Amino acid sequence: IPLTYTISCVKPAFILVLCRRLSLSGDKVHARKDAHSNLLSKKETSSLYKIQFHNVKPDCLEAYENLEAEVQNKLHQDKDYPCEVVGSWTTWYGEQDQAVHLWRYRGGYPALTDCLVKLKNNKEYMEFRKERAKMLISRRNQLLLEFSFWNEPLPRPGPNIYELRSYHLKPGTMIEWGNHWARAIRHRQENNEAVGGFFSQIGHLYVVYHLWAYESLQSREETRNTAWLKEGWDVNVYNTEALIKRMESKILIPTKSSPLQ
Questions:
Q1: What percent of the chain has pLDDT over 90?
Q2: 159: cis peptide before it, omega within 30°?
């Protein structure tokens, strides 16, 4: 449309379409020809992740942690189960009396299905679920994939605190988010604080999770302030803010059995 064209003559619906197609930054994706899971996830691996949120009765938290640790250790030692716990935490700041677990299934959906079938036939595990149910108020989970530009989360020594940041995006903006963060992540990798980045496949959709590790809350504050001094970080924040419907931050403390300490 020529710049001299009178905007009042353009129908509102056309303006909306036009605005979605125009971009000064060149980061917007106009016509997708593949699922964002194929465009954004790692091609060299086929790992699937599951994140669990368990709201625990306050007086059962210690017993819950001990029971979870026992079962997780058994599953790790049994090579017949194609799953591994990446990290386990309890919430320090955020929703209280909540446990968060991140699992990895190497082999994708077939590995997940294989594991679920075997666990369903494991009498000891089914007894564990019954005992655990007595300690819970509610629970939910999601299946996730890794962003290709984040490092795979690997065990690390402690002590650390962890921040789980969740971003609920507007539908249709996941690729644009990935385009920005593929460049922005380099501003946050110098201090080894970047643990993992994921996006949802099943459960609440268009949800992004960023997991960070810090020595302390003060270290977190200093690290985040330092990022603002780097050229390009402010642009990433500005460009991604418009894609977010809501966001949340949780500060997590690793359990004694967590591979991420």
A1: 65
A2: yes
